[in-house]
Specification:
CATH class: Alpha Beta
Number of domains: 1
Largest sheet: 5 strands, parallel
Structural class: alpha/beta
Strand order of the largest sheet: 3-2-1-4-5
Shape: globular
Radius of gyration: 15 Å
CATH superfamily: HUPs
Low-confidence stretches: none
Order of helices and strands: EHEHEHEHEHH
């Protein structure tokens, strides 16, 4: 019997961007099941609450049957045990991301040797897009239509 390949893509997703969605969709073609794990992450002081961020992610992936969403407030390796998923997906936009992501990948594998981290680069048109850029633009009521999925834009407009 073939083992189902399950992967986790974790992040704060404050808010989810077209860059995140690009990686999610591409990963969904590589793995049987993807869980988007939305971190509570109090240290980052998110602009949107956990429930709202989960709602945005769910709205963004509603057309994909092999992708689900969970919120979490634990070590990622502990979540991977609960989900029986030993593959972590991480996005790399720039060299500056690489150093941090490499350290996190090694830290996760030091906690659970079965963990494999797969690094994906976003498509070129999304290489500059980050949640922090979106939040910065939102602070000044700037245009973000090209940075977030349409359903996320609707949710953000409702909140404002």
């Amino acid at each position: 019997m073939k083992k189902i390949k399950k992967a986790i893509y974790s992040g704060t997703f404050d808010p989810i961007t077209n860059g995140h969605l690009d990686i999610i969709i591409r990963a969904s073609n590589m793995f049987d099941e993807i869980t988007i794990a939305v971190a509570k992450n109090r240290a980052k002081k998110p602009m949107f609450g956990l429930d709202k961020r989960i709602e945005m992610v769910e709205a963004s992936i509603s057309d994909y049957s092999n992708i689900n969403v969970v919120g979490f407030d634990s070590l990622l390796v502990d979540l991977s045990d609960k989900l029986d998923a030993d593959i972590i997906i991480r996005g790399l936009r720039a060299v500056s991301d690489f150093e941090y992501e490499l350290q996190m990948g090694y830290a996760n594998s030091s906690l659970k040797k079965e963990i494999e981290t797969v690094y994906l680069m976003p498509s070129l048109q999304y290489a500059f897009v980050s949640s922090s850029i979106v939040r910065s633009i939102l602070e000044f009521d700037g245009k973000i239509e090209h940075l977030v999925p349409p359903k996320v834009l609707e949710i953000i407009k409702e909140k404002r």
